[in-house]
Structure formats: structure tokens, C-alpha cells
Amino acid sequence: MGKSPFLNDVRxxxxxxxxxxxxxxxxxxxxxxxxxxxxxxxPATLGGDDVMAxxxxxxxxxxxxxxxxxxxxxxLAFLYNQxxxxxxxxxxxxxxxxxxxLPEVLSTSExxxxxxxxxxxxxxxxxxxxxxxxxxxxCLRLRVKDFxxxxxxLTVHDGKGAKDRVTILSPLLRPAIEAEIHNVLRLQxxxxxxxxxxxxxxxxxxxxxxAYRQAAWMFLFPSSGFCNHPITGTLCRHHLHDSxxxxxxxxxxxxxxxxxxxxxxxxxRHSFATELLRSGRDIRTxxxxxxxxxxxxxxIYTHVIGQHFAGxxxxxxxxxxx
Length: 322
Description:
By secondary structure, this protein is mainly α. It has two domains: 5-83, Tyrosine recombinase, N-terminal domain (DNA polymerase, domain 1), CATH 1.10.150.130; 108-318, Orthogonal Bundle (hpI Integrase, Chain A). It is 49% helix and 4% strand. It contains 13 helices and five strands. The chain has helices at 5-16, 21-37, 48-60, 66-83, 108-116, 120-132, 136-140, 174-192, 202-207, 243-256, 265-278, 283-290, 295-305; strands spanning 147-148, 153-156, 165-168, 227-228, 235-236. Helix 2 (21-37) crosses helix 4 (66-83), helix 3 runs antiparallel to helix 4 (66-83) and helix 5 crosses helix 10. The longest helix has 19 residues, at 174-192. The chain is globular.
């Protein structure tokens, strides 16, 4: 089904509307799953009742989380309301809920213990996750232009929900970031001599064909090899795959002795939020720094620390040697 002319038309429609590649992959996944559920019937022959039946199946049979149900609905709403021009209207559907687990978090001393077992690029990645509250994909997609040392901020472009946001940047990381920038710019210069550069979003690549030569567009954490751009087909250097830092984290956790907790890349983002609330930062500010659409998502962290806090620096500043 991956080569289906129908799905290719949906992909083309998404790209013409400037949707991110990640959103494209997510929506295509749920549209394909919806079609399989209805025994390969063409979506144009289905409607709102069929969408509700599928969502009910996800909740009752596959026991997916409420947020996953919402993503699936968003994908199908896009398919019908925009691509097929067959509006679904108001669906009489109630999302199935289940008790939400409190996220696992780390104290600053536990973060410090893990960082001590990391070095170089890997240490910088996890320092940014904890120090700026980034998702791992957001961190790996950072480019040279995204850092503002004078303001102590970094910009996350096209984060979850296709939103841009600005978050805090610990001044402790400036030397490591500048050293990494120096290294990647030398790599970019070498790539440019072969007519290759960092991957550029498809629309921008057409508008600014020489952008791959500009230092601003170089990834801070580039991959070790080249690949073909998934949209343009151009040979380029993409950012590092998230399997690399995940492997480094597993080893660091074992060495640090913190094997009694389930620690993932996202644990550092959870810990960023709880440390900000614990230090007195107000919840609306934390919501903005995390890029949460709804403050209710942020409020889960108040349950982690057991009380509400209200107040100004990155939690990484509590660690003397990142």
C-alpha cells in the first residue's frame, strides 16, 4: 500500500500545503491503518460513522492513549475535510481515557551523575535536553542559526504541532556549543567542495538553492554520512539519527548506577519542567517553554512535585560542570 497512487496524491497535497515531513509520515500511517481496518475500501466511499468505528476500535481493542486517538482523528479529519473535501461534521465520539501515569523524573544530582558518564557531543545533547526542555528530535534538528547567546535563548523550529518556540539556553553550554559549531562548519566546508550540504526543507531549498552553503543552516549534530533528501532526492547530510544518543544514554545510565528508574531521552524534558516549577517558575511560563498547547498538559508536573510553585534560570545552572 506504500506505493498507492491515492496515498501518493495525499502526500503531494500535504507538501503543497507546507506540512512537515514528520506530520506527513504520521498522517499517512493513520490513514493507511484506517484503510486496512475497513478492508481496503477507498476512503471516499466511507464517512463519519466509519471514522467513529475506527476510533472506537483503537480505544477498545488496541487500548491506545487518548493523545494517540486524537492524532488519528486529526489525520482523518485532514483527509476528509481538506483532501477529499468531504467534511466529517461533528462526530459524536468520546475519547476513551485511562489513568495517566506520572512521568519519571530525575533530580539535578541524578542528571549530573549521568552527564559525568557522557562526553563530547553526547554530553552536549543531554545537557540541552535538560537545560532547555527539548524533545530529542527537536535537539537533533537544531541548526547553527537557532542559538542566540546574547539573549540566552534558542529557537525550536517546527516543533510538535508544527509550532516554533523560544526556550532558555544555559550560558554554561556556550563553550561546548561554540566548539561543536566550529567542528560542524569545517565539515560543511568539506561537504560544499563536493556540492553537498545539510538537508534543507524542500520549499526553502527551491527558493534559496545556495542555502546549503550558508553556515546558518548547518546542523549542530549532523549525521556521519550522506543520504538522499526524502522530498527533493538531493544528496545531502541530514541530522544525527536519534538511535545514536539513545544508545549512549543506555550505557551512561548503567555506568551511573541509576538502573532503578526507567530513564529515556524524554525523562530529561520531564525533569526540566519539574525543576522549573520546583524553583518557583509559574506554570504558564513553563507551558510556553515546553511548547504545550494546553496548560493541562503542563499541570501533570505539579503532581510530580506534590504542590504548586510559582517563579528563573535554566535548571542546568544548578550543575557546576555540565
